[in-house]
Amino acid sequence: MNKTEEKQISKATIARMPLYLHYLQEENSKGTQYISSTVIAQNISVSSVLVRKDLALVSSEAGRPRLGFAVSRLMVDIEKFLGYDNLSEAVIVGAGGLGRAFLGYEGFKSNGLSVVAAFDLDEKLVGTKVAGKDILHMDELEKFVAEHNIPLGIVTVPKSAAQEVVNRLVGAGVRAIWNFAPAPLRVPKDIVLKTEDLAASLAILAGKLYKTGDR
Amino acid sequence: MNKTEEKQISKATIARMPLYLHYLQEENSKGTQYISSTVIAQNISVSSVLVRKDLALVSSEAGRPRLGFAVSRLMVDIEKFLGYDNLSEAVIVGAGGLGRAFLGYEGFKSNGLSVVAAFDLDEKLVGTKVAGKDILHMDELEKFVAEHNIPLGIVTVPKSAAQEVVNRLVGAGVRAIWNFAPAPLRVPKDIVLKTEDLAASLAILAGKLYKTGDR
DNA sequence: TTTTTATCGATATTATTATATCAAATACTT
DNA sequence: AAGTATTTGATATAATAATATCGATAAAAA
To answer: Which of the four CATH numbers 3.40.50.170, 1.10.10.10, 3.40.50.620, 2.60.40.3410 does domain B2-82 have?
Structure first.
C-alpha cells in the first residue's frame, strides 16, 4: 500500500532525533565512547526500547551487546539523517518581532541552519542589521534567493501576507518553507511546508493547565 | 487503569482546536450561523469524521442534522475548553532575542494570553522596554510573579540556566511553564510543562526535505 | 403532509505508535 | 578458560489515533 519503497519514519521519531543528538553531543564532549539505550532513555525520558527502535532506523552500525552504541558514529548518523549537512542556509521574510528574533537566535546554528538575511517592506527596517545580518527590501527577495541558492524560507509575516510571500519564495526557488504565520498555506507538491503553530502549542499547554488546575 | 475519571483528550485533538476556533471566528465574522463538519474538515484539511469526534468532546450542544453546529456556541465551547478565559497573563524570563520577540508578538493576544513583563540578568537590558513592557531584573522575579498571581512562565534563557529559572518560577507560584530552552526540565507533578523544541521542528522539516529533495 | 436528503453520532475497522518479553551476543569477571 | 551479567534486536502485545460504515434524525422540498 505504500507508494514509496522507503520505510516511513514517523514524525514522532524524527522529533526525537534532535534530542538524541543533543545528548550525544554532550556525552561526546565528556569523552564518552559508548552509550547504552537505557542511559539515553533516562535522559530523554522515553523507554529504552523506543530508543533502540529509533536508533535502528538511522544507525549505520548495530549496537554492541554489553557496550551499547558508538557515540561519535551515532552523532554522524543522526546528523546525516536530519539533513544537517544538507540544509544550511535560510532567509527570513518578515522582520517584525519574531523575524528579528530568529535573525539573532543562535540556536539554529547547532542544528546546521544559518539564517543569512531577512526581508521586509518597512522602509524603517530596510538597511538596518540585526546580529550582523542585513534586512533587505522585499523587492530583492527573488534575486537574493536565486543567486545564493537558498533552500529554505522562514515566513514570519502577518497572516494576510503569508500566502503571497510563500508564492514568491517558491517562485524564487526555495525547496522548503517554515511558516510561523497562523495561516493555512498552499504550496506545490514538491515543496516541503511546515507550519509552526504557536497557538496550538499554547493550546496544549492551556488545555493541560485547565485539566490539572481546574477548581 | 486511568487514574482520573475524566476522559483523556489527545494532544492531537487539542492541537486542532485552535484551528477550528480560528476558522469559526472567520466564518462568524461573515455572519455564518451554522456550519457542517464537512465544511470545517475541508478548511482544516482533516476528515469530517475526525472533526465530529473532536467537536463531540468539547461541544455543549449536539450538532443538528442537516444544519451542522452553531458557530457562536462552538466558539465559546472551544475557548472555554482551551482555557482562554483562564490563562491570561504570563512573564518571560530571558530577554534575549527570542524573549524580546515574544514580548512584542501580538499573536498571543488572540489566544487569550498577555505577556506582562520580562526578566533578565543583563544590566544593559534591565530598565528598558520592549513593546511597552518592562524588562526587570531577575531579583524581582519572585515578588512580581507572586504579587500579580501570574500563572504562566515563558522560559527563553540559555540551556544552562533553564532549570534554575524553572525552579524559581515554580517557587514563585506559576502553574505552568512554557519552555523554549533546549533542555529537559524537571518540575513538580502538579506543574504543567511544555517544552517547545524548535530544533525538533526544524528536524522534521529537514527530514522531509531530505526525503523529498534527496538526489 | 409526505418524501427526500444532508448531516450527525455511534460502532466497527484499520493504521499507527509505544511497550513488554525474551533469545542471542559479547564484554567483563573470576 | 569458563561462567556471568548486560545489552541488543526481533517478535509479540497493547494502547492510541484515524478512518470507514451506517442507521437515526430533522430540515427542506414536493
So the answer is: 1.10.10.10
Out of A44, A84, A131, name the one closest to residue B206 (CB): A84
pLDDT tens digits, one per residue of B120-163: 999 999 999 988 999 999 999 999 999 999 999 999 998 889 99
Q: Quick one: CA dihedral B195, A85, A2, A166, positive or negative? A: positive
Q: Could you count the other beta carbons within 10 Å of the beta carbon of residue B95?
A: 25
**Alpha-carbon separation of residue B187 from A184, B159, B176, B194 (angstroms):** 34, 15, 9, 11
d(CA A193, CA B28): 28
Does A176 sit within 8 Å of B82, measured CB to CB?
A: no
Distance in Å, residue A107 CA to nucleotide C4 C1': 61
Q: Distance from first CA to last CA of chain A, Å, rounded?
A: 48
Determine the residue of chain A that is closest to B114 in CA distance: A202
Residues sharing a CB contact under 8 Å with residue A158, sequence separation 6 or more, in sequence order = A94, A96, A181
Distance from CA of B108 to the nearest CA of A (A): 7
Does B152 contact A205 at a Cβ distance shorter than 8 Å? Answer: yes
Which of A196, A202, A212 lies at the smallest CB-CB distance from B190? A212
Using the C1' atom of nucleotide C15, identify the protein residue whose alpha carbon is closest: A1
User: How do strand A34-35 and strand A69-70 relate by DSSP bridges?
Assistant: antiparallel
Q: Is A19 in contact with B86 (Cβ distance < 8 A)?
A: no
A87-200 adopts what CATH topology?
A: Rossmann fold (3.40.50)
Q: Is the pTM of this model over 0.85?
A: no
Residue A6 has pLDDT above 70, yes or no: no
Which pairing describes strands B133-137 and B129-130: parallel, antiparallel, or unpaired? antiparallel
Residue B154, φ and ψ in degrees, nearest 5: -105, 120
Q: What does the domain layout of chain A look like in residue ranges?
A: 2-82, 87-200
Phi and psi of B123, rounded to 5°? Answer: -65, -25
Interface contact A15-B200, CB threshold 8 A: yes
